[in-house]
């Protein structure tokens, strides 16, 4: 595990004291982006949507201290990535009313996920898919504050994103195939690339054993992670390096150290907002090919083609 360093100092324009900027990595945190009333309404709306059948399921999930996600707007069926079907769920007004306030107005999000994090839960380090969503990624925190970990991606992240994964192909794909870019490893949500879990974990371990010393060398090269406290009602905007080159994560912990004090985790919610890329917009030419799903897909295609050519030689 990489060492945890202090967060870099933000720039604050005195005329906008609620806006903390890390311009070199394209990160912006806006404090008090929503009011306490809006926050209360969003929490209420989240729970008002609990329908009996689903309720017991989410309760069971919560009992396991798992995140619960709800999608609004356009979302994909990532199980058939590439020929994915787009679904639309009407977007509630407590979400659409926020759009005119977003710092970037030239394009607006059309894909929204409300997530509930029971105390102690988190989200593994990941880079949100590059090719399927526009540059700006937003996360509005509500309910309570939580520290988010950021780390410049390194060779380990690139390797993990190329690990063979159990196939989700319609034919049943008996042979393990690589994870399709953009296909997450979470059951409830498929927008991310995570460090190995489930089927991947075992393969990851085997590969680790195989790689032995090389692995240790890479671990040592890992850039330091740092934590940024996301206060309730704050809006995080990731663009540029923080969006394309960094992993972000929330450690699963019962308590956090905030300003030197041990603070128990409480219910936390987030609203992530993304813009779905369509048609010719799908793709990416970022400066971080190691963790870019578009580049990984190209690599896979090239490898397949080379394999095909060898077959007929
Ligand atoms: O909960 C958050 O603030 C972030 C969630 C996240 O990173 C994601 O869903 O991709
Ligand atoms: Fe994310």
From TrEMBL:
GO terms for molecular function: demethylase activity; oxidoreductase activity. InterPro entries: AlkB-like, AlkB-like_sf, ALKBH4, Oxoglu/Fe-dep_dioxygenase_dom. Residues 151-226 are annotated as: Disordered. GO terms for biological process: demethylation. Residues 212-222 have a biased composition (Acidic residues). Residues 108-277 form the Fe2OG dioxygenase domain. This is Fe2OG dioxygenase domain-containing protein. It comes from Thermothelomyces thermophilus (strain ATCC 42464 / BCRC 31852 / DSM 1799).
